[in-house]
Design a protein that fits this description.
- There is one protein chain.
- It is built from seven helices and eight strands, in the order ααααββββαββαββα.
- It is of the alpha+beta class and about 280 residues long.
- The protein folds into three domains: about 100 residues, Helix Hairpins, CATH 1.10.287.1260; about 50 residues, SH3 type barrels (Roll), CATH 2.30.30.60; about 80 residues, Alpha-Beta Plaits, CATH 3.30.70.100.
- The strands form two sheets. It has a five-stranded antiparallel sheet with strand order 4-3-2-1-5.
- Strand 3 and strand 4 form a beta hairpin.
- Helix 1 runs antiparallel to helix 2.
- It is elongated, with a radius of gyration of 37 Å.
- The model has no long low-confidence stretch (mean pLDDT about 80).
């Protein structure tokens, strides 16, 4: 009986010693993992601050700055967490394989969303347009209010909000009306057959000279564009600042309608002459 008791006591002592060693071992590993996370996250914040100062110094695009800082922060935090887990003895090979499989499944499920993400990255880097530009794309036209990672927000002239995915924007046709300083305004002005072409041309020249927004350019043009079915069409092309485009367009049309009649010029409408012959 004494021998049996001593054996039990010896076994308990051995188990307690083993348990103590394991507690110390895993305790040190846990403390190290927590230290890695704390120090790692602190370093990530420091790196973000350094990046922010660098972007301010280099005058980066705010949208691109936000995107790069977020992407870097997420990538570094994931790296810190993986390093901490490996310190705890967790096998990272299986974990990374599982993470890759999950990423593949998520990528297939959200292929459209990832396409918009890639489109947003392309737009941020190549900058075909920026916030405030007036663009036309995907059948919509308006001012760019916000450039997000997945979408671009437009405000139309009648104050509607339009959300366009970045994927089609990056891969489709897009017209940016704000990149050039000057724009050409084109008019087709019809007068009736029998009206004086010279009078019409002189009147249009007078309108052009009296509008201070129209630039004195050699490329300004007035000429006979077409002998149409019901009218003689004059072509008028003038240049102005991009921001004055619509003002020039509407003012010129208003003056043509109001003042052509005072000069004996008639604005025709489609008509057909029918001749009836008696048999």
């Amino acid at each position: 009986m004494p021998d049996s008791t001593s054996e039990i006591q010896s076994g308990i002592i051995d188990n307690l010693g083993w348990l103590k060693d394991k507690v110390i071992e895993y305790g040190i590993a846990l403390i190290t993992a927590v230290a890695i996370i704390v120090i790692g996250f602190w370093l990530v914040k420091r790196i973000k601050k350094i990046m922010a100062k660098f972007f301010i110094k280099k005058d980066f695009d705010p949208s691109l700055e936000t995107f790069l800082m977020s992407l870097t922060s997420i990538a570094l935090r994931i790296l810190v967490i993986i390093t901490a887990l490996s310190q705890l003895g967790i096998e990272m090979t299986s974990f990374v394989a599982l993470l890759g499989a999950a990423g593949l499944a998520i990528g297939m499920a959200f292929s459209g969303t990832l396409s918009n993400l890639a489109g947003g990255v392309m737009i941020l880097f190549f900058k075909p347009y920026k916030v405030g530009d007036y663009i036309e794309a995907q059948g919509e036209i308006g001012h760019v209010k916000e450039l997000q990672i997945f979408n671009t927000i437009l405000i139309t002239l009648d104050n509607k909000t339009v959300i366009i995915p970045n994927g089609p924007l990056a891969n489709g046709n897009m017209t940016n009306y704000s990149t050039q300083t000057n724009r050409r305004v084109d008019f087709v002005v019809g007068i009736a057959y029998g009206d004086s072409y010279d009078t019409a041309k002189e009147t249009l020249l007078k309108f052009v000279k009296e509008d201070p927004r129209i630039m004195d350019e050699e490329d300004n043009f007035i000429g006979l564009g077409e002998l149409a079915d019901s009218s003689v069409n004059l072509t008028l092309r003038v240049w102005c600042k991009t921001e004055d485009y619509w003002g020039v367009f509407f003012t010129m049309n208003e003056r043509i309608y109001k003042e052509f009649g005072d000069r004996g010029l008639n604005i025709p409408f489609p008509q057909m002459d029918v001749h009836v012959k008696n048999s």
